[in-house]
Write a structure and sequence with these properties.
single chain; alpha/beta; 60s Ribosomal Protein L30, Chain: A; fumarase; five-stranded mixed β-barrel; four-stranded mixed β-sheet; 15 helices; globular
Length: 502
């Protein structure tokens, strides 16, 4: 009987979540470097370089690679001959309790605070728990006296794009997967990894698709197998066909939409073929470790050579410089889709909750707490700053969530520019075109890099919303790409396809 102390589990989970917040897995960085070296699309190549620079900067500063520091998942594989002890407590706590304590300790760590995204109840007030608990816990009981733990910080942008289908046994799984990618948009921040769960029951398939993501990238080694099995054949087919779509990094068009395809399978009913799809984003964050009773797990930083050849900061850009403090409709209307801009001046922020309040205020005929006339608003919920920072990592959130608010805001406020990540939907594009304004794109997953362009930050309104409050950033040379120009032209592959079909 192996004895493991409850406090060692808590400490190990906390340390693991801090570690993955700023260290990408080595295999992921290597795959990203290979994708960058092979990329033929200039916008996608620039996005890949920003992701690589951000990865290096985050590792050096030990600050989060992404402002969405994730929902904490903890996978326990617990041997039946393990006993967990907690002599300092009245009773031995559950694995859920230990996971929650580890998550809270990690996310409230003063030297590297992580953004809390979890709400206690999905209905009603949707109040944030403040420490990113509860953890999402999965427990597998196995033979032996080992305890293996996978600690994961999974961003919301990937989970929201999850797909499930009950196919017929004779259907092509690859055809179904490839058909899903255009509809998923780029809000999951490609390039990343696709996880597939095949077989079992519906709920098993979804869990397998997610769990499959948390293994090393090895798709290129699979190509060398002389006699690939059925799973390997499917991995290769999906990998090649998805990348052939040309969606590319951040949906900007290009060669690398995904870096690998992972598959888990399970026995299923003979008449059924459950299939689940789950993407992992460019902020890939997980680590696997074991506890043997000798103390908490120890995590060794990756060899710094993994970032060899990556610059310490983004090279000076040749983009058009924009002064947000003197912005005019005429200047905005001169921008073209795909053009690189460098923003300086005062930039407002606002996400879902702030947009909802603003639209409700306008519906009541009341003035907004902040004037949007001739202003730009950035869809972001930043991480809290630490000493010396104006703001913590401050990457964009998915812009389509704000699409339904665009017609009202553009018609009634004089807003000139919105800034976020990924494509806009038809409602937003039509509103942008009608108003003669623009939408700008920031690379999702490069949050620490973005924060270096922010010189100061203050809350202007809705302070009770926490990270969703309306801030005013003062930025200098913040790099963005014109995603939708005043004529309704878009750079995004996915939006272009939708527009052409319509």
């Amino acid at each position: 009987m192996r004895v493991i102390q409850a406090r060692d589990i808590v400490t190990s989970i906390a340390d693991a979540l801090q570690y993955v917040s700023y260290y990408h897995p080595t295999d992921f960085v290597q795959a990203l470097k290979e994708a960058y070296q092979k990329e033929t699309s200039a916008p996608a190549r620039n996005a890949l370089l920003q992701l690589l620079v951000n990865s290096k900067m985050s590792a050096q500063a030990q600050r989060p690679v992404c402002q969405d520091t994730g929902v904490a998942h903890v996978f326990f594989k617990l041997g039946m001959d393990v006993r967990i002890e907690a002599p300092e407590r009245a009773a031995t706590p559950s694995l859920q309790t230990l996971a929650n304590e580890g998550v809270a300790k990690a996310y409230l760590f003063a030297d590297n605070p992580l953004r809390a995204s979890m709400i206690r109840h999905p209905l009603g007030q949707r109040k944030n728990t403040g420490d990113n608990t509860p953890a999402i816990v999965h427990v597998e009981l196995v033979e032996g006296d080992g305890l293996e733990i996978i600690a994961v910080a999974k961003g919301g942008g990937g989970d929201v794009k999850a797909r499930y289908a009950m196919l017929n046994p004779s259907d092509s799984i690859a055809d179904w997967v490839v058909s899903q990618l255009p509809g998923m948009g780029a809000g999951w921040c490609p390039p990343g990894v696709l996880g597939l769960g095949i077989g079992g029951t519906p709920e098993q398939a979804m869990l397998m698709a997610k769990r499959a993501l948390f293994t090393p990238i090895d798709i290129q080694s699979v190509r060398t197998h002389a006699n690939p099995d059925e799973v390997e054949k499917l991995r290769l087919e999906v990998f090649d066909r998805v990348n052939a779509l040309g969606i590319g990094a951040q949906g900007l068009g290009g060669d690398a939409t995904i870096l690998d395809v992972k598959i888990e399978t399970a026995a299923s009913h003979a008449a059924l073929l459950p299939v689940a799809l789950m993407p992992n984003c460019a902020a890939t964050r997980f680590i696997t470790f074991s506890l043997d009773g000798s103390g908490p797990a120890m995590f060794t930083p990756p060899d710094s050579s993994v970032w060899d050849g990556i610059p310490d900061a983004m090279p000076t850009a040749d983009g058009r410089r924009v002064d947000l403090d003197t912005l005019t409709p005429q200047e905005v209307q001169s921008w073209k889709a795909g053009e690189l801009l460098l923003l300086s001046g005062k930039l407002l922020t606002g996400r879902d909750a702030a947009h909802k309040r603003m639209v409700e205020t306008l519906a009541r005929g009341e003035p907004l707490p902040v004037s949007l006339k001739n202003r730009a608003i950035y869809y972001v919920g930043p991480v809290d700053p630490v000493k010396g920072e104006a703001v913590g990592p401050a990457g964009p959130t998915t812009s389509t969530r704000m699409d339904k608010f665009m017609p009202t805001l553009l018609e009634q406020t004089g807003l000139l520019v919105s800034v976020g990540k990924a494509e806009r939907g038809p409602v937003a594009i039509e509103a942008i075109k009608k108003a003669g304004v623009a939408y700008l794109v920031v690379v999702g997953g490069a949050a620490y890099l973005v924060s270096k362009a922010i010189e100061s930050a203050r809350v202007l309104a809705y302070e009770d919303l926490g990270m969703e409050a309306i801030y005013e950033f003062v930025v200098r040379d913040m790099p963005v790409t014109v995603g939708v120009d005043a004529r309704g032209h878009t750079i995004h592959w996915i939006s272009s396809v939708r527009t052409n079909r319509e």
